[in-house]
Task: structure prediction
Amino acid sequence: MLRLGVWRLEQFFPAAPSQLSSYLFYRVSRGRVSLRLLAAADDQQFEQLMRHVQLANGVYRTTFRNRFHNLDPVVNEVLRANFRPQEKLLVEDWAASACLTSYEWAQTLLPLFPGLRFTASDVALFLIEVEDRRSGDIFIADQDGRLLQFVRPPFVVSVQPPEPWYVPVNRLLCESAKTRWQKSAGLWPLPAEWLDARGEAALVREPYVVRKLPLVHPNAMALARSDARFSICRHSVFERSQTPCHVIRSMNILNRAYFSEVELTQAARAVIGSLRTHGIWVVGRTIDDESSVHDASVFRKGSSGELELISRMGNGAEIERLALDLTLATR
Ligand SMILES: C[S@@+](CC[C@H](N)C(=O)[O-])C[C@H]1O[C@@H](n2cnc3c(N)ncnc32)[C@H](O)[C@@H]1O
Result:
């Protein structure tokens, strides 16, 4: 009939707890974790909570510490073979999620290329929390105003994807949240200066209070604050970079599970258009998270804009053929 939700950090268990009362709560609330907890989470809790974040387009934020411990050295060797250490390399990590793997990669690259400029990007760097002051209800949406979750303790209700009808109480709350959400439509678009501002200040638009919920890992945020060579920005894989760069990595995003052939082609064109001549593109997918098995391809852009496959891990990227055919077609 109904499922409760996790709305306080002390209720959050990444795996089944042993104590009976906590275990029972875990069973009736599993999967329904308030994204509001991101704001107060420590490093470890942040990483565990990220597994519960799914964007409105269905893409999960899945990423985790050491995910690329065996990919980074292979890629770094390719870069050492292609660029001189004193080169002022521009490196971009696209669809970087919490930017944790970007942070880890940058740590290994900076000693090799001290003049490096590293940019980690993702289409979503934070979510938006809207509190209705009259009821205390919380709505959590993406930056474009697409509602993801509704929180009214003891319920945490998924709106995207919608709650199934076999938990009718949750589904009715989900439908009512969608209707009420439409009344807040006047909040959008949110002011660009507030979205771009670094601070945590809330935006008050009576009867609503609007806050940002961070999606960037605290380690990556700290590096961006302390080292000007590392930065984080909002960017879509369908857009070209503002400045042509030497290296682009796009892992676990350009997959057929997420995008159509047309979209993948558009993203591949954006990558090629963003690379300098002789630039390197690392693309692929992690096929086994437990043992860090990746199917990835490394391309180099030639002087006529063509891609050359220069290295492969596992079976290579799902879109390896698409990328090579694309360059042949555009020559
Ligand atoms: C599965 S995560 C991959 C994270 C990281 N690259 C890794 O491999 O660990 C996919 C990421 O793609 C982001 N994403 C989805 N659509 C995107 C787009 N159009 N442009 C840029 N990022 C996008 C999501 O926000 C999510 O963080």
Remarks:
- The domain at 72-124+217-330 is CATH 3.40.50.150 (Rossmann fold).
